[in-house]
Design brief:
It contains seven helices and five strands, in the order ααββββααβααα. About 40% of the residues lie in helices and about 15% in strands. It is of the alpha+beta class. The radius of gyration is 16 Å and the shape is globular. It has one domain: Nonspecific Lipid-transfer Protein, Chain A (2-Layer Sandwich), CATH 3.30.1050.
């Protein structure tokens, strides 16, 4: 399988054409810190997941050179990036444009509308995905804003830039 991480930047889709290839090991500690912060600030999120807190979710942000793997288990929380050529086994898979997925975390996108318009591709255990979506919907405020705040002014500026870019594309974020 072709690994877009090592393809020329002009051949990579979406945002990836602007990003140099990045070793994923650099992302892992950041993703772990993000997951820990979201879990710490939103402990009720896990109750909302019920039996699906041990479900394995693959999140496919189209246009990025990697996918994300999530197990929202408060006792063994996992959130990591993976090379597209090595997608892990999962119970559910959620795919969509990066800005649509960002909009879901930022509170500005309607998951049902994205699903029914086929802008969000869900396969596998749809009940687990619905529980995850409901848990995220119950979070007060914007998860994206909370995460951006972890990185201070540069993080908030990056989120503002992504929101502007999404608005130009006509996507909610």
């Amino acid at each position: 399988m072709h690994d877009i991480f090592h393809s020329p930047s002009s051949a990579r889709p979406g945002l990836t054409r602007f990003l140099p290839p990045m070793p994923l090991f650099l992302l892992q500690p950041v993703l772990k810190r993000i997951a820990a912060k979201v879990a710490r600030e939103n402990p009720s999120l896990f109750n909302r997941l019920g039996p699906h807190r041990t479900a394995r979710f693959v999140i496919d942000p189209q246009g990025l050179p990697f996918g994300l793997f999530l197990i929202p288990n408060p006792d063994a929380l996992t959130f990591r990036a993976f090379h597209r050529s090595a997608e892990p086994a999962s119970d559910a898979r959620i795919g969509g444009k990066f800005f649509d997925l960002l909009g879901l975390l930022d509170g500005g996108a309607d998951g049902d509308a994205l699903f029914f318009s086929r802008d969000l591709d869900v396969t596998g255990n749809t009940e687990a995905v619905v529980c995850l979506r409901n848990a995220l919907d119950d979070v007060e405020g914007s998860i994206a804003e909370s995460v951006a705040g972890m990185f201070g002014p540069p993080g908030r500026a990056a989120l503002a830039g992504l929101r502007r870019l999404a608005a130009k594309k006509g996507d909610p974020a």
